[in-house]
Amino acid sequence: MRYFILIFGVFCCSTSVIFIKIGSTDPIVLSGYRTLLGGLFLTPFILRLKHLQRPPLGELLRRGWPPAFFLGIHFITWIIGARLTPSANASLIVNMVPVVMPLLLFMVLRERITRPEGVGTAAAMAGVVILGLGDFSFSPEHALGDAVCFLSMLFYAIYLIFARKNRDVASIYFYVVPVYLLAGILCLSIAGLRELGGHSVLWIGPDLRMELISILGLALVPTVLGHSIINWALRSIRGQAVVIINLAQFIFAGTMGYVLLNEVPHLVFYLASLLVVTGALIVIHYSRKPA
Description:
This protein is mostly helical. The protein has helices at 2-14, 16-21, 27-47, 57-84, 87-94, 97-109, 115-133, 143-165, 172-196, 208-233, 239-246, 249-261, 267-286.
């Protein structure tokens, strides 16, 4: 059942591209809105956890600020990098998390991946490489964007490592609520500093109705449901298994893009999807050791 819940969470995360495309609010501001509202939406759940001893506020902030920093910077660098390099480059690089995750898991938590996880990783990453290399552009003018996307991928991987590291927190709400609130404050502070520095910041787009759908959709679906479920899964499912299954985001996003936005996937999309699904099924089938 936990794998089905994780897959649902991955699907929720994949909807972010749809909500982003229907709005025009400044991306850094939008990142702040989605995380800050996500934290506020989940705050009542903390208040209802009367059967659990609530950790001191200082401890919640101590645990929450490092992953909040990496989540916020991931969102910001992903936006910047994606605008400096072709989409294929950005998509390929940001999906390299399963490659760096084993090293981070071992360095931080001394967690080694199993042989089936290695096989599943190889199959899934083959799909990602096939998906990206067809249109990948090796060009000096894109080097900066590629480097920023690589940093964004590292920030996301480190953010996930903290979820694994903090799995001893009594409730997932005690962890994700401070993370979202702090990440939202960080992003909005950066946007405010840009405004003070003389840069024009679009705090809300012209079509208020579509902007509200975009903001609330991002907060409720990919953040409250998607990221929260992935953080929850990392408490009980092995880290490498989670990041491989998380690669299915591009499958869901591609499908929704076709249905909702009439974006027809290239033929290679289907081969890449098959390989990613194969890799995910391998790690699910053989993930029998305790997390």
